């Protein structure tokens, strides 16, 4: 196994242990707990918090991907071209909105719980995906597009068989960015009573228990790193395949 | 559809729909949920009529595709109508309600605000104004909003009442928020610029540094702030005199340190990318004509890379203005204090009092930094 | 005078430049020609120490280049590369004045020099001084690149494929300009190219390199008439060699008395062009005139005899 493969496997094993057998880590976190205080978070199972955390992120990112790619396809068609400058403006302005503020602003509108967190993650996740999808769909090699028209593909066929597959690696970059931001931001969702791993960290902050803060932080951090890594691998694999294909076509 | 701006049509449809949504909320007191009121039920028709007419006219002026100035005028009229309805609607609603009653803008208002703001932005982007024009426009908008706030016309709104009862706390929080965001930007720049320049020259340092900085970025913000608390209380115990200069486990210091650590990656990465923008032939020529590496850095690489370096600082500034909200959770002050107090008390207007200035600050900083980036872009590239 | 003495550059044990020695006389153009990988650019870059030689040395007017700090050496040597390498964020005046500024010239002196050079390259100073490189055509950018290299009146001008990025018509004009300016200023130039045509056209001396070795160093006529190796013969173009030789001789050297019909040609026209004109017009002789003064004529028979005598 390569060195990076070994590090990856070690991270996965560590994460699984932290989520499934948190008590194994009592000696590790004990020095950070206040004297006589609890070391490992026990008010809820770490597994259920992790699943709820990842579920929120997956749902929000999945919806964001569908909507963002759909909108990007619309504005890169001739009929939607008039909306392209507007979409760029919205993405630029939207990305300056702080995720925490979006979350906070969703509360007066939607109340507490998973709802505002989901909406905030969805809205905030839209933008990077939308941006990269537009970039991917509007910077396709002109020769390939010309060839696709030349061999008689319809617009729909061109979109499905040529444009989307070619733009996929770029779109994936946006999804990766969006998912990693969502994993981090979801922790803040616990301040509005969403069930996420942020609960552990906030409990630590409220009771000055650094052991909790570290426990929650390490788990969320590992999730973020591993998801980032997995999506990067997927992206590299796709890019390489596309690279080989086009090289083969030229040969 | 010829001659119609498709976004204009979209805005008109959305705007018309939003007119039917609840425009304001009237609540019996600060905490209870309010009741939504539609536009035409805010006040007498002679008050609501002109406001609604202004907005309809604004939406109609947004339609012609070829006339961006007309669309800008339409957006301005629509915004004027919105403010008119908000100010007069609030006082009229309060007049009919009890002493502790609160009025706030509701979904319809926010939606119309977004529609007209986007209409303005879309028309402006068609004109693609230069940096000077954009700076002028930014100052004008800030002045108008400032005048509206100072005039007291909005003082009937619930958020203004929250503000009135916390004036001093608000100013302290503003200073603290600015201090956190700009201070950490400055610290990150002071540390990150030399680090970036050094790792540009030294591949070994680059390979060692970048993974560490990337790792710092994956730590969730909440945990980063939390971890800084014990680190700093340890430091303040170990280093004599540290407590005297404000290094302590809670408050400003841990928030500041967390923000600075987060900022290092974008700064260093953009310095590296910026220094790489000089074309290879240009660098070869600079070497060939006898520039020392310091001269190449200060006369060629940095001037050519400055826009990229500044975009890195823009990312950091906008990111830190947002993240500084979390300082409110660990007693670090700033607008986050109001946000989290509001969340605790389920007082929506208190949340807004913290969130709205944060959003405004982030927006203004982003626009100002964009203007700066464009001004530093070498003239030739801008003209191409 | 530039003396290159037994200079060698090793990369991981392989010699990119292998014990090359040659002398460049002051006030001449030496063209180093070779295919890619021949070591010609490495040799050039060792002269201003952009690449440090593994062994051997270079002396400029008797002084070893290793005796100077690298950046000070380079400020005394002009350097022009393919694709010009102009500073995109400097004006034309800023670009040309870059080396004078490094040398600490006064503003007035630099400005005067910039205008003088712009004039020399027939670019109106008032019009071009404050423009940016991206606003210029490729040919103009290239001229600014050469002007920048000449700004501090360097002892030596090094040029690495300076005309490589130009299209053929602009390239011919740039070559003529360079020749003209070199004659006027008496500059010493070492130029690298892969184009033998360019080497023969521009060089007082031509050095042919292959595999890191200097195969032959001599006047263009010597190189064409007596190629030292098969490779040099192939480089100078096999069956085209007589034509290339004729291209080096002006008709003024093959004049005879008499007259001929048709439009007269100038005395500095090459014999190759004269031959081409004879064939094109279907005549045996062409009249030669300097402006309105008839000088004589040149005949097909003379040209044929000159070609035979050289071969």
UniProtKB/TrEMBL annotation, chain A:
<dbReference type="InterPro" id="IPR051204">
    <property type="entry name" value="ABC_transp_perm/SBD"/>
</dbReference>
<dbReference type="InterPro" id="IPR035906">
    <property type="entry name" value="MetI-like_sf"/>
</dbReference>
<feature type="domain" description="ABC transmembrane type-1">
    <location>
        <begin position="50"/>
        <end position="235"/>
    </location>
</feature>
<keyword id="KW-0812">Transmembrane</keyword>
<dbReference type="InterPro" id="IPR000515">
    <property type="entry name" value="MetI-like"/>
</dbReference>
<feature type="transmembrane region" description="Helical">
    <location>
        <begin position="96"/>
        <end position="115"/>
    </location>
</feature>
<keyword id="KW-0813">Transport</keyword>
<keyword id="KW-1133">Transmembrane helix</keyword>
<comment type="similarity">
    <text>Belongs to the binding-protein-dependent transport system permease family.</text>
</comment>
<feature type="transmembrane region" description="Helical">
    <location>
        <begin position="121"/>
        <end position="143"/>
    </location>
</feature>
<protein>
    <submittedName>
        <fullName>ABC transporter</fullName>
    </submittedName>
</protein>
<feature type="transmembrane region" description="Helical">
    <location>
        <begin position="164"/>
        <end position="192"/>
    </location>
</feature>
<dbReference type="Pfam" id="PF00528">
    <property type="entry name" value="BPD_transp_1"/>
</dbReference>
<feature type="transmembrane region" description="Helical">
    <location>
        <begin position="54"/>
        <end position="75"/>
    </location>
</feature>
<keyword id="KW-0472">Membrane</keyword>
Automatic annotation (TrEMBL), chain B:
<keyword id="KW-0812">Transmembrane</keyword>
<feature type="transmembrane region" description="Helical">
    <location>
        <begin position="210"/>
        <end position="232"/>
    </location>
</feature>
<keyword id="KW-0813">Transport</keyword>
<feature type="transmembrane region" description="Helical">
    <location>
        <begin position="43"/>
        <end position="63"/>
    </location>
</feature>
<feature type="domain" description="ABC transmembrane type-1">
    <location>
        <begin position="174"/>
        <end position="369"/>
    </location>
</feature>
<feature type="transmembrane region" description="Helical">
    <location>
        <begin position="244"/>
        <end position="265"/>
    </location>
</feature>
<keyword id="KW-1133">Transmembrane helix</keyword>
<keyword id="KW-0472">Membrane</keyword>
<comment type="similarity">
    <text>Belongs to the binding-protein-dependent transport system permease family.</text>
</comment>
<feature type="transmembrane region" description="Helical">
    <location>
        <begin position="137"/>
        <end position="159"/>
    </location>
</feature>
<feature type="transmembrane region" description="Helical">
    <location>
        <begin position="350"/>
        <end position="373"/>
    </location>
</feature>
<dbReference type="InterPro" id="IPR000515">
    <property type="entry name" value="MetI-like"/>
</dbReference>
<dbReference type="InterPro" id="IPR035906">
    <property type="entry name" value="MetI-like_sf"/>
</dbReference>
<protein>
    <submittedName>
        <fullName>ABC transporter permease</fullName>
    </submittedName>
</protein>
<feature type="transmembrane region" description="Helical">
    <location>
        <begin position="107"/>
        <end position="125"/>
    </location>
</feature>
TrEMBL record, chain C:
<dbReference type="InterPro" id="IPR017871">
    <property type="entry name" value="ABC_transporter-like_CS"/>
</dbReference>
<feature type="domain" description="ABC transporter">
    <location>
        <begin position="2"/>
        <end position="236"/>
    </location>
</feature>
<comment type="similarity">
    <text>Belongs to the ABC transporter superfamily.</text>
</comment>
<dbReference type="InterPro" id="IPR003439">
    <property type="entry name" value="ABC_transporter-like_ATP-bd"/>
</dbReference>
<keyword id="KW-0067">ATP-binding</keyword>
<dbReference type="InterPro" id="IPR003593">
    <property type="entry name" value="AAA+_ATPase"/>
</dbReference>
<keyword id="KW-0547">Nucleotide-binding</keyword>
<dbReference type="GO" id="GO:0005524">
    <property type="term" value="F:ATP binding"/>
</dbReference>
<protein>
    <submittedName>
        <fullName>Amino acid ABC transporter ATP-binding protein</fullName>
    </submittedName>
</protein>
<dbReference type="InterPro" id="IPR046342">
    <property type="entry name" value="CBS_dom_sf"/>
</dbReference>
<dbReference type="Pfam" id="PF00005">
    <property type="entry name" value="ABC_tran"/>
</dbReference>
<keyword id="KW-0813">Transport</keyword>
<dbReference type="InterPro" id="IPR027417">
    <property type="entry name" value="P-loop_NTPase"/>
</dbReference>
């Amino acid at each position: 196994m390569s060195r990076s493969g070994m590090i990856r496997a070690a991270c996965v094993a560590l994460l699984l242990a932290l989520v499934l057998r948190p008590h194994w880590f009592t000696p590790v976190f004990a020095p950070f707990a206040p004297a006589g205080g609890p070391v490992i978070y026990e008010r809820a199972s770490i597994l259920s918090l992790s699943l709820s955390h990842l579920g929120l992120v997956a749902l929000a990112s999945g919806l964001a991907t569908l909507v963002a790619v759909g909108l990007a396809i619309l504005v890169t068609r001739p009929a939607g071209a008039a909306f392209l400058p507007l979409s760029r403006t919205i993405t630029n302005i939207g990305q300056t909105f702080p995720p925490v503020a979006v979350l906070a602003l969703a509360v007066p509108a939607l109340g507490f719980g998973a709802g505002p967190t989901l909406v905030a993650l969805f809205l905030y996740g839209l933008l990077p995906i939308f941006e990269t999808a537009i970039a991917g769909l509007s910077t396709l090699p002109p020769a390939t597009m010309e060839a696709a028209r030349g061999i008689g593909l319809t617009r729909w066929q061109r979109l499905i068989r040529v444009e989307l597959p070619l733009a996929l690696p770029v779109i994936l970059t946006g999804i990766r960015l969006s998912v990693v931001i969502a994993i981090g931001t979801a922790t803040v969702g616990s301040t509005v009573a969403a069930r996420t791993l942020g609960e552990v960290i906030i409990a630590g902050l409220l009771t000055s228990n650094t052991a909790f803060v570290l426990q929650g932080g390490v788990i969320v951090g590992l999730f973020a790193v591993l998801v980032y890594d997995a999506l990067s691998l997927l992206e590299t694999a796709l890019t390489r395949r596309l690279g080989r294909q086009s090289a083969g076509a030229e040969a | 559809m010829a001659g119609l701006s498709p976004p204009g049509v979209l805005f008109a449809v959305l705007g018309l729909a939003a007119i039917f949504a609840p425009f304001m909320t009237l609540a019996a007191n600060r905490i209870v949920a309010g009741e939504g009121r539609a536009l035409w039920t805010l006040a007498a028709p002679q008050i609501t009529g002109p406001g609604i007419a202004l907005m309809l006219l604004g939406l109609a002026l947004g339609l012609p595709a070829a006339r961006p100035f007309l669309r800008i005028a339409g957006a301005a009229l629509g915004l004027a109508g919105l403010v008119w309805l908000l100010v007069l609607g609030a006082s009229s609603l309060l007049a009919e309600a009890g002493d502790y009653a609160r009025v706030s803008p509701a979904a319809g208002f926010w939606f119309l605000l977004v529609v007209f703001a986007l209409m303005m932005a879309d028309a402006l982007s068609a004109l693609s104004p230069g940096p000077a024009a954009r700076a002028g426009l930014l100052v004008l908008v800030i002045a108008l909003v400032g005048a509206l706030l100072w005039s007291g016309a909005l003082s009937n709104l619930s958020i203004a009442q929250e503000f009135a009862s916390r004036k001093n706390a608000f100013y302290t929080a503003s200073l603290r928020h600015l201090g956190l965001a700009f201070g950490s930007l400055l610290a990150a720049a002071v540390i990150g610029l030399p680090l970036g320049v050094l790792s540009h020259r030294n591949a070994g340092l680059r390979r060692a540094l970048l993974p560490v900085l990337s790792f710092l970025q994956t730590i969730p913000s909440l945990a980063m702030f939390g971890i800084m608390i014990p680190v700093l209380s340890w430091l303040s115990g170990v280093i004599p005199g540290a407590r005297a200069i404000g290094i302590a486990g809670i408050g400003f210091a841990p928030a500041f340190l967390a923000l600075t650590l987060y900022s290092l990656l974008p700064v260093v990465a953009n310095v590296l990318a910026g220094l790489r923008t000089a074309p290879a032939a240009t660098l070869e020529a600079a070497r060939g004509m006898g520039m020392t590496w310091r001269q190449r850095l200060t006369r060629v690489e940095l001037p050519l890379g400055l826009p990229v370096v500044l975009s890195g600082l823009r990312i950091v500034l906008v990111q830190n203005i947002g993240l500084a909200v979390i300082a409110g959770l660990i007693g670090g002050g700033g607008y986050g204090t109001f946000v989290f107090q509001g969340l605790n008390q389920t007082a929506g207007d208190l949340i807004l009092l913290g969130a709205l200035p944060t959003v405004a600050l982030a927006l203004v900083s982003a626009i100002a930094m964009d203007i700066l980036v464009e001004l530093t872009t070498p003239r030739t590239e801008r003209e191409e | 005078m530039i003396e290159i003495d037994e200079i060698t550059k090793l990369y991981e044990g392989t010699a990119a430049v292998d014990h090359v020695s040659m002398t460049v006389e002051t006030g001449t153009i030496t063209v180093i020609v070779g295919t890619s990988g021949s070591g010609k650019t490495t040799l050039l870059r060792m002269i201003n120490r952009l690449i440090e030689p593994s062994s051997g040395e270079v002396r400029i007017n008797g002084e070893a280049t290793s005796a100077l700090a690298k950046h000070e050496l380079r400020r005394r040597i002009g350097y022009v590369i393919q694709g010009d390498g102009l500073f995109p964020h400097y004006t034309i005046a800023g670009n040309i004045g870059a080396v004078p500024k490094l040398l600490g010239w006064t503003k007035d002196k630099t400005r005067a020099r910039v205008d003088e050079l712009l004039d020399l390259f027939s670019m109106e100073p008032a019009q071009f001084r404050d423009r940016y490189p991206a606003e210029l055509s490729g040919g103009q950018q290239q001229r600014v690149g050469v002007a920048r290299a000449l700004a501090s009146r360097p002892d030596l001008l090094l040029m690495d494929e300076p005309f490589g990025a130009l299209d053929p018509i602009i390239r011919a004009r740039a070559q003529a300009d360079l020749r003209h300016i070199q004659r006027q200023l008496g500059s010493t130039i070492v130029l690298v190219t892969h184009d033998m045509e360019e080497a023969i056209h521009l060089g007082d001396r031509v050095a042919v390199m292959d595999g890191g070795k200097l195969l032959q160093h001599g006047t263009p006529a010597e190189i064409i008439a007596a190629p030292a190796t098969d490779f040099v013969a192939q480089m100078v173009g096999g069956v085209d060699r007589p034509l290339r030789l004729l291209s080096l001789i002006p008709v003024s050297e093959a004049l005879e008395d008499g007259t001929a019909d048709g439009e007269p040609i100038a005395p500095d026209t090459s014999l190759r062009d004269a031959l081409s004109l004879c064939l094109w017009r279907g005549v045996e002789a062409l009249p030669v005139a300097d402006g309105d003064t008839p000088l004589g004529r040149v005949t097909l028979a003379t040209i044929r005899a000159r070609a035979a005598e050289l071969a």
